[in-house]
Design a protein that fits this description.
Rossmann fold; 8-stranded mixed β-sheet; 14 strands; alpha/beta
């Protein structure tokens, strides 16, 4: 029996040992005892087990039993009176695997300095540049299949996203002409698109691809009670859907219909209050709901008392959304998705209205459950210029929106795979 303090640590140990991993090792040794062996050379230098010895010392253990070996036999097999099939035995097995997995952080410079990279890779070492190439490959494969990788963060700054958006914009040619001069309370939107925000066509395309059912034998139907500009209806009808939208402003409705008719698309816009969307569609007749309603008073669209952006209070605005979304939920078929693009907006005192949270409550009470919550990252634009002023009041610059995806289950609950085939098999990219 020797003392742990007589062993010598490897100053070039390739495993740097994470703080979390060391804390797990120490906890395991204190509560369960030593489960794994170590390997030393003739001079007591530790070849394998540096982390275990370090953790053992921190755990208050002092002695180590050394068994001599020539390297040609399996030794240091420790027998315990604890049965594997007991709760304690299973916990020891779990701890051994968990600590081994958690306590791994390669010291890449040390490995490359001491060993040939091929030897390192032979034993499963994955270097950072290799991981990056793998991730790039995976990202490319996912992009080929899903347009963009289906992660919870949608980055509009990516080159591929921007390219698709430009192609759509050139085709649709909606520059917010009918809303020139509209101002937002924060001065943010007025810096772009003739002073108004325009729906991101690439976002509509991605949402259509991911959440429009494709295992059906009829032309799918999509709708929006707050249609706004022509982008949403144009993209969805261009991709093959019958689209129906309501838009309160007559000039915008006229312009939208002219655009889709020019391309012979199956889209129709009605000049009406979004709360009346049920006048134009039958209950449970629609396959996808996609909407980007007004962000309360961030933009002022008209002086019409029915306009969501013209409500005197947030409570009135929310009640208007409640009525429109409740009606929309009735029109959506079962086993279908509803998507709402929204952002929190500050009140006059600088505090946020939790509009995404309130919208979620509206859909939940109407039987549509929050299924995905995505973050849409916007380009910085003029935010870099404006944030210097906002930070005087410690308001960080908001450069993201939320994309809320709700699911309306069928009579037997979640039956998504019945109507939604594998995307690779069912979708062809628009050229």
């Amino acid at each position: 029996m020797s003392e742990i303090k007589d062993l010598k640590f490897d100053d070039k140990n390739f495993n740097k040992h994470t703080e979390y991993g060391m804390s797990l090792l120490e906890k395991s040794l204190k509560e369960l005892g030593a489960g794994r062996s170590i390997l030393i050379d003739k001079d007591n230098n530790i070849i394998a087990g540096n982390g275990i010895i370090e953790a053992a010392g921190q755990a208050g253990l002092e002695n180590v039993k050394i068994v001599e070996t020539t390297g040609n036999e399996i030794v240091a097999v420790k027998r315990t009176d604890i049965s594997l099939n007991s709760k304690k035995g299973r916990e020891m097995a779990l701890a051994d695997n968990a600590t081994a997995a958690a306590d791994l952080e390669w010291d890449e410079p040390a490995i490359k300095d001491e060993l040939d990279e091929e030897i390192a890779k032979k034993w499963g070492v994955i270097f950072e540049e290799d991981m990056q190439r793998y991730q790039d490959f995976e990202s490319g494969s996912l992009t080929d299949k899903f347009l963009i990788p289906p992660f919870s963060v949608l980055d509009t700054r990516k080159e591929g996203w921007q390219a698709r958006k430009k192609q759509w914009n050139a085709l649709i040619n909606d520059n917010g002409e009918s809303r020139e001069g509209l101002l937002d309370s924060n001065g943010a939107i007025s810096q772009i698109n003739n002073g108004v925000s325009i729906l991101d066509a690439a976002l509509v395309e991605v949402m259509y691809k991911w959440f429009m059912p494709d295992n059906i034998d009829y032309k799918p139907a999509a709708f929006d009670c707050f249609a706004g500009d022509s982008v949403g209806g144009f993209v969805m009808s261009y991709l093959g859907a019958n689209f129906t939208g309501t838009e309160l402003r007559a000039e915008q409705t006229k312009l939208n219909n002219e655009r889709v008719q020019k391309e012979n698309l199956t889209a129709t816009y009605y000049c009406d209050d979004g709360r009346n969307i049920g006048k134009y569609l039958k209950p449970e007749s629609q396959d996808l709901f996609f909407s980007c309603p007004p962000y309360f008073d961030l933009e002022h669209y008209s002086d019409d008392a029915r306009d969501a952006s013209n409500q005197a209070s947030y409570a009135e605005f929310l009640q208007l959304l409640d009525t429109a979304f409740t009606e929309s939920a009735k029109l959506l078929k079962k086993n279908r998705f509803a998507i709402v693009v929204m952002s929190a907006v500050r009140d006059k005192k600088g505090y946020y209205y939790d509009i995404p949270g309130d919208i979620t409550k509206i859909f939940e009470k109407n039987g549509c459950h929050l299924y995905n919550q995505l973050v849409l990252v916007d380009a910085i634009g003029t935010l870099a210029l404006r944030v210097g002023n906002t930070m005087k009041n410690r308001k960080v610059g908001r450069r993201h929106q939320e994309v809320l995806v709700f699911y309306k289950p069928g009579d037997k609950g979640n039956n998504i795979q019945n109507d939604f085939k594998d995307i690779r098999e069912s979708y062809e990219d628009a050229d």
